[in-house]
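Hi R.,

Here's the input for the iron/sulfur cluster complex you asked about:
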Amino acid sequence: MNITSQSGFSYFFDPAACRACAGFCCRGQSGSIWVNAREIARIADFFESNQIDIIHRYLTPVDNRLSIRERFADGQFSCVFFADQEKKCSIHAARPDQCRRFPFWEHYRNRIDELFRECPGVRLTPGI
Ligand code: SF4
Ligand code: SF4
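And here is the predicted structure with iron/sulfur cluster in place:
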């Protein structure tokens, strides 16, 4: 489950919105989803595979780090683990911390309008 609020952010997140959403946080523009050794091990456990296989199949180097590969189809990018608009993340239980922290990313802290366009689960915190 995603976190629903975080100190220093002027919005909160309603996870119930994900049920009716087409998974806009996992597709659209190209972007990096970083994974570290602990997260690679978690994904490998999920697939009952080994970390080398996970790296070769699903990850790509970006700026000396590893990011999840993307697909490009119908004019948009999507995370290689994005199943479809109904099922969304195919590794939900093992998804990286960056995904678990969405929508509380530093990038969005002062870009709330951009975030509102992307995620229908974001609500302004009352009184702010
Ligand atoms: S964009 Fe927001 S509402 Fe939609 S699936 Fe992602 S977190 Fe859930
Ligand atoms: S790992 Fe899952 S939650 Fe994270 S971007 Fe990919 S499909 Fe979305």
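One thing worth noting: Residues 11-124 form one domain.

Cheers,
M.
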